[in-house]
Amino acid sequence: MTNIYGVSLDGWFDQGSHIYPLKVQYEDTDAGGVVYHANYLAYAERARSAGFALLDIDQRSRLANGYAFVVASVNIQYHQPARLGDLLKVVSTTAKLTGVQIVLRQLIMSDSGINLATCEVKVVYAKLQKSNLPEENASKENHNSATLSGRPVRLDKDVKNKILATMPPQNHGITQ
Q1: Which of 14, 28, 30, 56 is an active site residue?
Q2: Is 86 a catalytic residue?
Q3: How many CB atoms lie within 10 A of CB 140?
Q4: How many domains, in total, are found in the chain?
């Protein structure tokens, strides 16, 4: 969990859902002050990463060891626009968990509780393959350059248990 000045930057969990607060910034909007459609996906991605951090799922160390959580598909429906200065929250709930896939339902909501956008995101856990760059050409900054091997791998037990702890039993798509 990332804290600064005693405030969690990663949000919190409430009744099985991860809550990630944010404020619409000028850079998020078009000339009319309306949030650009692709930024809703960025909000959802930030919330997923923050939720994993709260669950103590260290994505940085997984990347260093050649594994990553990869978005396999996204379905998004826009309901109402957010505007410059609006306070929003992304409410993320794990809808389903299988051996290799996490299905998240993410609602991007106004601070008054109006659903602005709904995302269904399928995330898989994948083994990465080191790039074919010769070692002498690889700098410290890009030594972890990788490409997907094309195959998801099973979630490890630690990750499954942390995610299962946030879910109602009827949504469990795996056996322990």
Answers
A1: 30
A2: no
A3: 6
A4: 1
CB 40, CB 112: distance < 8 Å: no
- Domain harbouring 131, CATH code: 3.10.129.10
- In three-state secondary structure terms, 105 is strand
Domain membership flag for residue 174: no
Q: Residues 6 or more apart from 103 whose CB is under 8 A from it?
A: 94, 95, 96, 97, 120, 121, 122, 123
* Phi, psi (deg, nearest 5) at residue 110: -75, 165
Condensed to tens digits (0 to 9), the pLDDT of residues 49-103 reads 999 999 999 999 999 888 899 999 999 999 999 999 999 999 999 999 999 999 9
Q: Residue 159's domain spans which residues?
A: 3-169
- Per the model's pLDDT, the better-predicted residue between 115 and 6 turns out to be 115
| Strand 87-97 to 146-152 pairing | unpaired
